[in-house]
Design brief:
- Keywords: DNA-binding, Transcription, Transcription regulation.
- It comes from Companilactobacillus huachuanensis.
- Pfam families: HTH_6 (PF01418), SIS (PF01380).
- This is MurR/RpiR family transcriptional regulator.
- It is built from 14 helices and 4 strands.
- Helix 8 crosses helix 13 (about 245-265).
- About 30% of the residues are buried.
- The model has no long low-confidence stretch (mean pLDDT about 90).
- By secondary structure, the protein is an alpha/beta fold.
- Helix content is about 60%, strand content about 5%.
- Strands 1-2-3-4 form a 4-stranded parallel sheet, sandwiched between helices.
Length: about 280
């Protein structure tokens, strides 16, 4: 039986030992950094009570207890698997468990998305962007934040990209795009009606359409020239927050930015260094 299970069961514990066990269960991560005197003070008990509790669960003393508890918690964090990306944590999870579960969700999203990207696919996208006269970015809701960050990065290497902030603006901008222009659509679900309408307009005008989405068979994807895939992990509707999709989309956009940067590496590097030198006096 694990230490936590024994403390939870509380067999043969007296009143002060039960109170001590309850504190340890609630604060198991922070207890690892507490001395025996600090723990005694925090639980209004004594060092002898702590040692007695340790021995009741089969340990030599407090030092042995912390070593075993640390190993047990580490194994527990390593064993956390199959985390639901829509609801990755519960009200019973500790802060450390929440952090570990979010790490697992994001790691899985990044790993799976990375496996979907190919060198040829990225080269094709980079070529289409550089050959276009205008580049537009179209995104709504949560994806707009990622789009704004991407536009900001492009601006810093003197690559202009239009990003409309209003739905009606998006439609007018799409209507102005031609076969000489390129549009980057961002829709994790691939089911956005607004984005689908934009894709129809862009397709009608002959503009190149690059879509970042998790559904390569969606209506939007089928109207696109190229699909930059994101791992399909989340529900399209109910979730606590778009943890997996947001990190996946930003990974794709950051990768694309880096590929665009490398395509003119020397010029972009000189431009960034010159800009940093220009703005250096603005920082304390």
């Amino acid at each position: 039986m694990t230490i936590i299970n024994q403390l939870t069961t509380a067999d043969h514990f007296n009143g002060s030992e039960k109170q001590l066990a309850a504190y340890i269960i609630k604060n198991k991560e922070s207890v690892l950094n507490q001395s025996i005197q600090s723990l005694a003070t925090a639980t209004f008990s004594s060092t002898s009570t702590i040692v007695r509790l340790c021995r009741k669960i089969g340990l030599k003393g407090y030092k042995d207890f912390k070593i075993k508890l640390s190993a047990e918690l580490q194994q527990h964090y390593n064993d956390i698997s199959a985390v639901n990306p829509d609801f990755p944590f519960t009200e019973d999870d500790s802060n450390k468990e929440i952090a570990q579960k979010l790490l697992d969700v994001m790691y899985d999203s990044l790993t799976q998305t990375s496996e979907l990207l190919t060198n040829d696919l990225l080269e094709h996208v980079v070529r289409d962007i550089f050959q276009s006269q205008k580049l537009g970015i179209f995104a709504y809701g949560d994806t707009y934040i990622s789009a704004l960050s991407f536009q900001n990065k492009l601006m810093k290497i003197n690559l202009n990209a239009n990003l409309p902030s209003l739905t009606e603006e998006s439609k007018f901008m799409a209507a102005n795009y031609t076969k000489n222009d390129c549009a980057l659509l961002i829709s994790y679900s691939g089911q956005s009606k607004d984005t689908y309408q934009l894709a129809q307009i862009l397709r009608l005008n002959g503009a190149k359409i690059i879509t970042v989405t998790s559904d390569k068979n969606s209506k939007i994807a089928k109207l696109s020239n190229i699909v930059l895939p994101v791992a399909n992990m989340e529900s399209k509707t109910v979730k606590i927050s778009p943890f997996a999709s947001q990190v996946g989309i930003e990974y794709v956009l950051n990768t694309l930015y880096s590929c665009l940067f490398v395509a003119n590496y020397d010029d972009n590097q000189r431009h960034r260094l010159a800009s940093e030198k220009l703005f250096s006096d603005s920082r304390f």
